[in-house]
Every structure is written in structure tokens, then in C-alpha cells.
Amino acid sequence: MRQGHSSLGDYRVLVDTCLADLQRRDVVGWIWRGDHTLWKPDPTEISDRLGWLTVTDAMRGSVADLQDFAQEVRGDGVRHVVLLGMGGSSLGPEVLRQTFGSAPGFPELIVLDSTIPARVKSVTDAIDPARTLFLVSSKSGTTIEPNVLYRYFRRIVEQAVGAEQAGRNFAAVTDEGTPLAKLGDSDRFRRVFVNPSDIGGRYSVLSYFGLVPAAMMGLDIRGILDRANGMREAASHDVSAAGNPGAWLGAVLGCMAETGRDKVTLITTPSIRSFGLWVEQLLAESTGKEGTGIIPVAGEPLASPECYGGDRLFVYLRLEGDDDPSTEAAMDAIEKSGQPVVSLRLRDKYGIFAEMYRWKFATAVAGVVLGIHPFDQPDVQSAKDMTDRVLEGVQTTRERPVMEPSGSLGGLLGRASPGDYLAVMAYVEETPETNEALNDLRREVTRRYGIATTVGYGPRFLHSTGQLHKGGPESALLLQITADHTQDLKIPGREYSFGVLADAQAMGDFEALTAKGLPAARVHLRGDLEAGIRELIGQVR
Predict the structure, then answer these.
(1) DSSP 3-state assignment of 481?
(2) Residues 474, 517: contact at Cβ < 8 Å?
(3) What is the pLDDT of residues 38-73, one digit of tens each?
(4) How far is CA 153 from each of CA 91, 103, 159, 362, 489, rounded to the nearest angstrom?
(5) Which pLDDT tens digit goes with each residue over 126-140?
(6) Which residues contact 513 (CB under 8 A, 6 or more apart)?
(7) pLDDT of 394
(8) Which residues 6+ apart lie within 8 Å of 5 measured at CB?
(9) What is the distance in angstroms between the CA of the first residue and the CA of the last residue of the chain?
(10) 117 and 429 in contact (C-beta within 8 Å)?
(11) How confident is the model at residue 11 (pLDDT cuts 50, 70, 90)?
(12) Cα–Cα distance between 87 and 274 in angstroms, integer?
């Protein structure tokens, strides 16, 4: 069965009814015909956002070119490829990095999607700029984070190899005619890959945005496209909704969300754990609007069944040969407790590319079920506007933003009720130690309060779950974590540093949340970050 094993209990009748309705309305046919009125009468960001359905055709014609480019880079002795991007431009490549790693002899991929100065510094220290290719990745070509990162690394490369040769250390992926495309020409980039413009960022992983870094890692590009096309054929217009793996999953996601089971808790076997990063953005930014939406819960530590409420749908991605006994036991217990579970099996790692296609199609179908527009992000701009205002104030007063605490974790959790979730928004450097401490915090919150938890690192999450926080269901308890910058880095050509930009983004996001009257608290940690997070765990206990 293409859609995998499912244990939906009494919800199966509801899903079957939904599938019958999708079939009656010919929803799959409408999707393939590219008719935007399936979602909304206004074509804005719908009629020109369906290129992901068939982009594998265009990419098939580029396989040899991608392979030649990768060999050229490899032959020039490049040791690292540093991808400068955000959201849809970075999350797919990050999944590839964590899932596959680079093939022997190919450059190591580093994804830099942070303005936290400690993270920028750690990447700077890890590379030889003369033997690094920087891939500037942005659909619009105007995204602030990759633009300032380009300024920073361009100066470093010029110091290493000279201004005349520096352009060879840069490439770009962007849409046609963008400021980034023009910059690539004027600054003599090694290459500018012009992506089809009818694909939104979070749907772009099977286009140049995902395939250029994949090629430079030495992955099998033809194999990637073959796997995606296998799912594309299974989801074609002449397959019934019930037999279509994308439509089937979309019906499950949408129907469950309508009944209140809107926390899609993604569990994976160890080798494909990062897949949740990509699914998180796809679901959150596509469906979290108009007061509704599907809340992706990725990377949450597993708990005993009694800790979970009636707002969960569990989706278990299982890679053959990668089974983890503790995860298997936990999932068996969850299923036996009566929670709805969908289990999807991958025969090897390249199966994630079929899953990427399936989940994109499912998200489009879930948008039909929920009655929302799955291709726009109407609430993302508010945080950007607030950030710009903070930066304007900094440039006027010449004073850094002051990160003052506001509220407390205890105060937030004191408001928790069934169906809520805690969203942790961490404007700090991501490290293994920080991840472990935040996982312990999530585990304790679920055990103590029985609610779901999510974690996003700022400013990356602004381009993914940030839309859900502001436009989705009013069930989020929003905890912002900030910390002192022990070191800072200047941005060439700007009057502010990376530390100031990161703080402005945190302040802008917080102001956008509170302007909507959402329950939000900020804690500012000083000194040892891990110790500060563990103090928060103590408060939960």
C-alpha cells in the first residue's frame, strides 16, 4: 500500500468520506490543471506557484550540467560549500547534509541560515576562504540574511585571494531578474543558476535550490529525480483520490486538523531525523493562516502515552534497516493507546525525495480540506517590518537594542489548557549542548502539562513556523529565548553588526506577536546558555 500502514480507529470513516468528496469534486484533476480557484478566487501567489508539480522535467535536462559544475568545483580544490540562505532555500539542503553527508572527494556542505554572531564566527573559523565556494540562495534575491552574509564573506574572500579573483568563490541560485541575479553578474560570480519562477521557496527542494547543493555533495541527481517522479506518477491525475498517496495523506492531515487533532507529530528513525525540519516549514507556513492550520511537531522527545492529549496525529517515517528499538517500543505503545498513527516506510535514504513530493502534494490537498491558501504567507511580513523599524532606531540613536525580559515561562504555562502548545523561539546559537537542553525542556513540559512543544532557532524559524505563530490557531504559548552576545561581527557596508541585527529580529518578532495580542514571554539568559535553559527546566518542575 503506497500510503503505508495506518491505524486511525474511528477516524477512518471520516477520512474515507473526505476522500470520496475529493474524488467527487475532482480535486486531484483541478490541481494538475493548475486551476487556482480550487483554493481561492484570487489568483495571487497561486496561479504562479504550481511549478513544483512538474519541475522534475526541467531538472532532468540539467543533470549533466549540474554534474559538470560539481566536478569543476571539485577539480578546483574546493573543500567546503557554504550555503547562505533562509527558509525554503536552506532547509532542504540542511536535510540533505544531515541525511547523506558529502560523497568521498566532494566538498563538505555547511548551511548557514543564522545571523547569530557566534554561529557566523564558528563557520568562519571552520573554513579556508580561498578554498570555499559560497552559494547565495534566495528566490527573491532581497532576503536580508543571505545578503548581509554575502557582504561579510565577500570581504573575507577578497582578503584571501584578491578582489579580482573573489567572484570565482561565489555562486547563486535565484529567480530570473532578481537583484541577486544582477549582483552575480556585476560581481562576477562563478555561476548564477536561474530557477523557474513559478515555485515558492518551501516547495523548491526538487529544483535548483535543492539540486545544486546536492550535486556539489556528490549525490546522484538522476536518482533523486527518479524517486521523485515515481511518487509524481503515483499522484497523477488519473489515479483515484483514495489510491493517490499524496491525496490520501492530505485528506488525513486536513480531516484530523478539522477535528482538533492538528498537532502532526513527526517521528522518524535516526538516519532521517532531519526530515522534520523541512516538513515543519512546509506545513506551518502553508497552512497556518486565517486562524486555522496544521501544527507540525518535529524533533519532540517521545513520552509515555498518558502524556499525550486528544490533539495529536502521529506520523512515523521508518527507514528500512534503521530501526531504533526504543522508538519502535514507544510507537507501539502510542498506537495501542488509541492515538491515530500513520506509518510510512522508506526502503533507502533516497526515498526521502519521493516523500518530499508526497508531502508537497498532501499539503496542497490539505489546503483544500481546510479552505485556506497553501502558497502564500500573509503574516511573515509583519516581523520584517518591525525589525526594520528597530534597525532604523539603532541607526538614529546609535544605541544597541536592549533585550529586556517580558513575562515568564511559568506565567505562560499557567495559562496552558488542552489543545495548546508551547513554541520555543530561541535566538541563540544552535549547538549539540543547546539542543540537548531544549529537548529536556520539551520533555518536561509535555510530561508536566500534557501539551505539545516545538522549537525554532531564530531567525531561521521566521521563514517557517513564524507564519503559523501569527496566523494559525490561537493555541500557541510563545516563549522567546535570547542571550548576550559574547562576541560580535561587523557587517561591511552596514551601520549595524550581526549581533544588532539578530537582536532587532528578535525584538521585531516579539513586537509582532504582542501586537496581535498573543500570549508571549521573553526570557533573556546571561552567562552559560545551557545552564540558563536548565534553570527554566527547574521552573517547570
Answers:
(1) strand
(2) no
(3) 999 988 888 889 999 999 999 999 999 999 999 999
(4) 21, 25, 10, 39, 11
(5) 999 999 999 999 999
(6) 469, 470, 478, 520
(7) 85
(8) 342, 343, 345
(9) 44
(10) no
(11) very high
(12) 14
- Are the C-beta atoms of 205 and 277 separated by less than 8 Å? no
Q: Considering only CA atoms, which of 183, 255, 242, 225 is closest in space to residue 67?
A: 225
Domains and CATH numbers, the chain: 5-39+233-370 (3.40.50.10490), 53-226 (3.40.50.10490), 380-540 (3.40.50.10490)
Q: What are the Cα distances from residue 24, in Å, to 7, 32, 242, 310?
A: 25, 16, 11, 30
The values of phi and psi at residue 366, to 5°, are -60, -35
User: Are 209 and 221 contacting, i.e. CB atoms less than 8 angstroms apart?
Assistant: no
Residue 1 predicted with pLDDT over 70: no
- Per-residue pLDDT of 426-484, as tens digits, reads 999 999 999 999 999 999 999 999 999 999 999 999 999 999 999 999 999 999 999 99
pLDDT over 90 (residue 229): yes
243, containing H or E segment: none
- DSSP for 225-240 reads HHHHHHHHHHTSTTS-
Residue 460's nearest CA partner among 49, 52, 92 is: 92
Biggest CA-to-CA distance, the chain: 67
Name the nearest CA neighbour of 334 among 9, 1, 10, 2: 9
Q: Pull the grid cell for residue 261.
A: 487533532
Cis peptide leading into 93, omega within 30 of 0? no
Reply yes or no on whether the pLDDT at 383 is more than 90: no
Please determine, for residue 108, whether its predicted confidence score (pLDDT) is greater than 90: yes
pTM for the model stands at: 0.97
